[in-house]
Each structure stands twice: as C-alpha cells, then as structure tokens.
Amino acid sequence: MGYKIGIFESQNEAIQAIQALEHAGFTNKELTVIARDREHSRRIESETNVHADELQDLADTRSATDQHGLGDPRVVAPIAASPGMPMAGTFAGGFAYPGTSFVTAAAFLDDDNSMGSALSDLGVPSGDIDACREAIARGAIVIAADTGSEQTNGGPDLTLGGTAEAALRGSNATRIL
To answer: What pLDDT sits at residue 15?
Structure first.
C-alpha cells in the first residue's frame, strides 16, 4: 500500500486538506489524521467526518503495555464490539464487562520506540516515521492518504498519489512525504 503524507502546522490547514482530499474522491476510511493530543485534534474531528488519532494517548498505552504487560488491569482500552466478535486480528486479549462492551489490553505490542511504533501501527511508512514524529512533537498535524499500490510511467502523475499530492500541496502542507 502507498501513502501520500502531508504535514500541516495548523488545524485550519488540516481541515482544508481533508476537505480537498474528500473532494478529490478520497473517503474517510482512506485518510489517517494524527495529532499530538486531544487539544490538537478536537476541532478537526468536529468539523470533518474523519477521526483523528492522538499520538500521545497511543504511545502512552503502548508504553504502559510494555511496562506492565497485558495481564495488568490498568492497561485497558475500551472498544465497541458486536456480540460474538472473535478475539482475533490485532487485539491480544481482553474480557467482557456486563453489557456489550469489549475491553482489550493495548493493541500495540511491538518492542520498539512507543511513538514510532504507534505511527507504524497507524500506517505511516517506516521511512517517514522520524519526520512525522518530529512534526507532531512540535504540534503539527499529519494527514496520510492511502493511495494503494501504483507507479507512474514517467509522464504526468495522474495516479491517486498525484491527486493526493495536489490536494495536500493546495492546502499549504509544509512538507509532503
């Protein structure tokens, strides 16, 4: 899978980029928005139909899992689940509360830098993790558009990657990866 990633210094620019990407045909499932914390994502979520992941929360959960292990009840993240949902995929374990909630111990289990691993888990390519981590640390917002697996033939870039790059560039991305 390929991604076109834009780094934005303000929530306004990030919102404009999301709207431009949606106008270009990308769906909210093809967009990943990563901010430092809730303060940096709240407005984006309220003005668009795209969920923004808060990297600090993800890294804290990963770090707690690494320190305490999955058996520690302090390391839980609630997740909505339908009845009969199998415990497979990226989730490692959990237990049921009365009702329909499923609680799982953190889904991030790699032994690596917590923020870098959290970015990787969100789909950021390994070569772009350091640039994204540094940008998010200073308060920037990262938007990644899933462009599938495509290659250009040396001519004008009419691929999804070219479309995404045009939308990101037109929305004042400070850097495009």
So the answer is: 97
